[in-house]
Amino acid sequence: MVFKNREEAGRRLVAELMHHRRDPGGLILALPRGGVAVGYQLSLALHLPLDVFITRKIGAPGNPEYAIGAVAEAGSRYVNQVAVDALGVSRHELERLIQAQEKEIVRRKDSYRQGRLLPQLTGRTVFLVDDGIATGSTFMASALAIRSLQPRRLIGVIPVGPSSTIREVRTHVDELAVLMTPDPFEAVGNFFMDFTQVEDRLVMEYLHLAEEAMLERTPPSPAS
After folding, report:
1. Is 159 inside any structural domain?
2. Model confidence pLDDT, tens digit, residues 187-204
3. pLDDT per residue as tens digits for the range 156-173
4. Structural domains of the chain, count
């Protein structure tokens, strides 16, 4: 199975989640940037609000695509100590890498939310969405951070990922919707015909369109 693009992956995931449609406490939190395109389609079909949860991968020195951990907007950190030790990353270097990503989180919060705070998560059903995972560092850091905010249920939503990582992810969520666990697995982008990078402008457009769709479905208030 190969997805045409991220939006198609989102539409295919809807079938796995229709039992949650119109959940009164439901909230879709997508990992920007790519996860927002997937989450947008879920928001439209499940009639649930869409927002972002900002977590940044900590890339290895000299190989930023290789994750040695992640840091989330709620302040939690996830470090793959095995990878850190194997690469000989010093504590000072690791802290420098973390601080750089924390600055990027602040920038993205300002851009994407325009001053709004992260919605209240306590007691809600939260859908954590990405466009695919490889090492899973970013997704698991996000799950740990969201857990600390006490949602009623945490549901992972992922189009594709390697079976070994998916097994680990299952231990961090109450429910997991996943479409493919191919073996061998090389890269998420191999399973999309179009895996063009999603720009900030498009993230904000998805959020705006999802909000408009939710408002259109909200019945008008009685006249006073």
Report:
1. yes
2. 999 999 999 999 999 999
3. 999 999 999 999 999 999
4. 1
